[in-house]
Task: structure prediction
Amino acid sequence: MAGIGSLKANSSATIDATITAISPIRDVNTSRGPARVADATLQDDSGTITLTLWGDDTKRYSVGQKLRITDGWVKDFRGKLQISMGRSGRIEIQP
Result:
């Protein structure tokens, strides 16, 4: 399993991390129509990354939860790495 510090843009990854912050939910217009989005900051021993949460996921998670992201998609957005679910990704809350 990769640490956040070793993630590279344009690749899939599986990580364990803790939510340290969640932004306020924003309403945005996408190519698929209006959507709700929020950014969660994830941290592990090697670094931090932004997890983009869409739709119902914006209310599903809270600061302090430990998550396992399986097959997340890492991309570079405005010079910073972000991870999202892509087509086959999953988020599981860890005990």
Remarks:
- The chain has one domain: 4-90.
- The longest strand covers residues 11-22.
- DSSP finds one helix and seven strands in the chain.
- The first helix runs from residue 57 to 60.
